[in-house]
Design goal:
Strand content: 15-25%
Shape: elongated
Helix content: 40-55%
Radius of gyration: 31 Å
Distance between the termini: 23 Å
Largest sheet: 6 strands, parallel
Number of strands: 14
């Protein structure tokens, strides 16, 4: 339960208890000095007087008299506590209105500041709470959907604040001097680096404790030599997922197969490009041929080669087209033997439907192949069908979650 929910629950519970104390005291024979006829009144009248204690106390109805001692003490408790509870609620609301940031953060320390409220943020928080179930969390975003805000508060016990993480004044209110780590997971790459720069200006002690996610691998590499990037931890979720896929699933297949392997990367977006890089890094001696299928694949491979200076460590075949079009697979079969080998075919376009449907078709055509179908979010349905047809369904989201470095979770 979130802090807000606990406060809400506590206040309502206290109000109900105090109301019942007054009501049952009146029902058990306690009278009021200015309303002696309350004893002969009906239950609704007694309930009305009990509720009135929250507004006026006993100023217009007098003090408890008569009746048994314990009920009389119960009524005295309600006399003092009911108006105090009502007044404290009003005072708290006024303070929040006048100085919302101070109210939110007045007790926060040793906390982790996270910007962004997308799926990557949820992925990080899931893993964080497994490692650090009680560390204070401060979530910042320009705008929250009501459902996401409630999820962050109730499920991850986070303090949620709407604001611009790049505003120096706003940053100065986040008690960064008490923060253990800052994790920038917003969708705007430039904004993440801008925020990191300003945070370092305000609190240099956070050097090495700021994690920046960059959606664009190209932009992240361009910023690699900047002073901000050098003082922060920079990562791309696709790169993290591709590295995990190669090391956890592909290398074991390479080891088990005696001849050098054939790898088909069907879909050459960010994920496909990072898979190619990871294969060069970890498995270039194990691969005979890499076939790449993708729309605009030739231009993209030129960009990757130029940026990363990839070595031609194996035979490389490039085919332009959509993976759902039979013609592109006919072109591939004319140059790459899939029938007499145990190829790895990775379907990693942005269309989960195309990946999934094509994986079933390929598994039927090449039963000895290792087929991998990529999705973004985990899917129980895809896992079930994958087990049925011996297809590996991998989720970018799950690969990232399972492979966040442990030091990103600890102060």
């Amino acid at each position: 339960m979130s802090l807000l929910a606990l406060k809400f629950s506590w206040r309502w519970s206290a109000a109900v208890i105090l109301f019942l104390c007054a009501f049952f005291a009146l029902m058990m024979g306690v009278s009021l000095s200015e309303r002696p006829d309350v004893q002969t009144a009906d239950m609704l009248t007694k309930a009305y007087y009990s509720l009135g204690l929250f507004v006026m106390g006993g100023l217009d109805i007098g003090t408890p008299i008569g009746g048994p001692l314990v009920p009389r003490l119960m009524l005295w408790l309600s006399y003092f506590a009911s108006p105090m509870l009502a007044a404290s609620t009003i005072i708290e609301a006024v303070i929040k209105t006048i100085s919302p940031y101070k109210w939110h953060f007045r007790r926060i320390s040793n906390h982790i500041v996270v910007s962004g409220s997308g799926e990557l943020t949820i992925t990080y928080l899931k893993q964080l709470r497994l490692v650090q179930p009680k560390i204070p969390l401060l979530i910042i975003c320009d705008e929250f959907s009501p459902m996401r805000e409630e999820e962050l508060k109730s499920h991850y016990h986070a303090t949620v604040v709407t604001g611009d993480i790049t505003r120096s004044y706003f940053l100065s209110k986040l008690f960064l001097n008490k923060a253990k780590k800052v994790v920038l997971l917003g969708d705007d790459n430039f904004q993440n680096y801008e925020a990191a720069y300003k945070i370092l200006q305000l609190q240099p002690s956070l050097k090495g404790k700021i994690i920046i996610h960059c959606n664009s691998i190209r932009f992240m590499r361009s910023m690699a030599d900047s002073a901000v990037a050098q003082q922060c931890i920079n990562f791309n979720s696709y790169q993290l997922a591709a590295s995990a896929l190669v090391q956890q699933h592909l290398i074991s297949h390479f080891v088990q197969t005696v001849p050098k392997d054939v790898v088909v990367i069907a879909g050459f977006g960010l994920f496909g490009q990072t898979i190619l890089e990871e294969l060069q890094h970890y498995a270039q001696k194990e691969i005979d041929t890499i076939a790449i299928i993708g729309i605009d694949a030739k231009r993209r491979i030129q960009v990757v080669d130029e940026q990363r200076q990839l070595a031609n460590f194996c035979n490389r075949e490039i085919f332009e087209g959509n993976i759902s079009h039979p013609e592109v697979w006919q072109q591939l079969r004319s140059k790459v033997d899939l029938a007499n080998t145990q190829p790895i075919i990775i379907l990693c376009t942005d269309s989960v439907e195309d990946n999934f449907r094509t994986s079933l078709w390929l598994k039927n055509k090449y039963p000895d192949s290792m087929i991998i179908a990529r999705s973004y979010l985990p899917s129980k349905f895809a896992e079930n069908v994958g087990e049925q047809y011996n297809i590996l369904n991998v989720s970018i989201n799950q690969l990232v979650k399972d492979n966040f470095p442990i030091e990103w979770m600890t102060p």
